[in-house]
Amino acid sequence: MPPRKNIPLGSIIALYHAQPLRWRDLLITFIPLGLLVLSPLGYGVWRSYYGYTRFGVAAANWGLPWYILSAVGSIPYLLYTFQRLRRAHLWVAVHAQGMRVHRPRHRLQTFLWKQIEGLGTATTQNTFLLWHAKPRHSLTICAINTTPIHLNDRLPNLPDLIANIKAQVYPHLRVQLREAYQAGQTLYFGILTISKRGLNCKGTTFSWSDIDHVSVEKGRFQILSSSGKKTRVPAKNILNFELLIELLEEEVKL
């Protein structure tokens, strides 16, 4: 069942919009570019009319090169327009009691904070010798009764959005996870699950006594068993990663 649109969420805290579409964009960008694309077409029509009226049917195709030029110019114009419309439809609003997410080709989705069950985040940066690319961020939101929502740097200030959502979601999730763990339930963190019996990773189960150490190295969560075997998984595939580390340190005492 898709999230309802009319859930009251209280006052808005922050709005993250990929690229709002305003009237000034129409006046400054779209209309001038449209006229630029159509001007060869208009000139071609005049050339065809002039040739036909002065020299007959044989000269009626004088405007053909200008028609082609206008058609070729319309391709990047239409692609740019399509891209701008897509960016205009990508936004996230953070409210006091929840959030709204709107993405291209998707319905508006509305969530209360208590409906969000997991957050997956990742930051990657390509390097070559002394060259360092700009860090890239991603966010996955898992909520009740809906498919995961994936966001990336197409949305501006994504790290700030991630921090805002964590500040709202993690406090109540932290309490729920600790209570569930102490009650003996199995907790799901994406590709990892933990319980009082141990940790399961990619189908392999480790009892707590078999785990010597856990760490994070180069974006990977690493499990070192007492036998010396290392198991690594991408940290980006683990939901609520910070809460998992807290549980391992405070409850499991790793």
Explain what this protein looks like in three dimensions:
Helices cover 37% and strands 31% of the residues. The two termini are 39 Å apart. A hairpin with a 2-residue loop joins strand 10 (187-189) and strand 11. The protein folds into three domains: 20-88; 90-179; 184-250, no CATH class. The mean pLDDT is 87. With 254 residues, it is of the alpha+beta class. Helix 1 packs antiparallel against helix 2 (64-88). The chain has four helices and 16 strands. A four-stranded antiparallel sheet has the order 1-2-3-4, covered by helices on one side.
Average pLDDT figure: 87
Strand order of the largest sheet: 1-2-3-4
Structural class per helix/strand content? alpha+beta
The ordered H/E elements are EHHEEEEEEEEHEEEEEEEH
Radius of gyration: 28 Å
The largest pleated sheet is described as: 4 strands, antiparallel
Q: What is the strand content?
A: 25-35%
Helix content: 25-40%
Distance between the termini: 39 Å
Return residue spans where pLDDT drops below 50 for at least 5 consecutive residues.
Answer: none
Work out the helix count.
4
Number of strands: 16
Q: How many structural domains?
A: 3
Please state the overall shape, judged from the principal axes of the Cα atoms.
elongated
